[in-house]
Amino acid sequence: AARLQSMDEGNWGGIIEWLLDKDRNGHLCAHSVDVDHRLPLHIAAAYGMKWSDGMDIILKANVSGLEEKDKITGLYPFMLAAARSSCSGEGSDLDAAYEMLRMNPTTIGERRLRF
User: What pTM, to 2 d.p., does this model score?
Assistant: First the structure.
């Protein structure tokens, strides 16, 4: 995951290939965490990787990551994707946030309204 942080947006293809590789223990790198205990899914969402640039591939490599909050922000991946998109202002892409919610709507949680 450290490699993911050091790469710029222009080389998403190389990052995706690396994430689909297996580590020494036979686990996909997409399940590995960095020194801050962030999954590649969290980092990609925070850095604004678009669904069409390979976020879908990262997500399919670690679907269970949708249920894990980012250790730095406390946000779920869909929240990171939405916040990044709304803050950047340029070329907003909410497809990733939508698809993440579609794949795991339970991350929204149940909210009870009190009147």
Answer: 0.73
> How far is 98 from 82, CA to CA, in rounded Å?
9
Q: What is the pLDDT along the chain (115 residues), one digit of tens a residue?
A: 445 544 445 566 666 776 777 666 656 777 888 888 899 899 888 888 888 888 888 898 899 999 999 999 999 999 888 886 444 455 456 889 999 999 999 888 755 555 5
Q: Which amino acid is at 22?
A: K
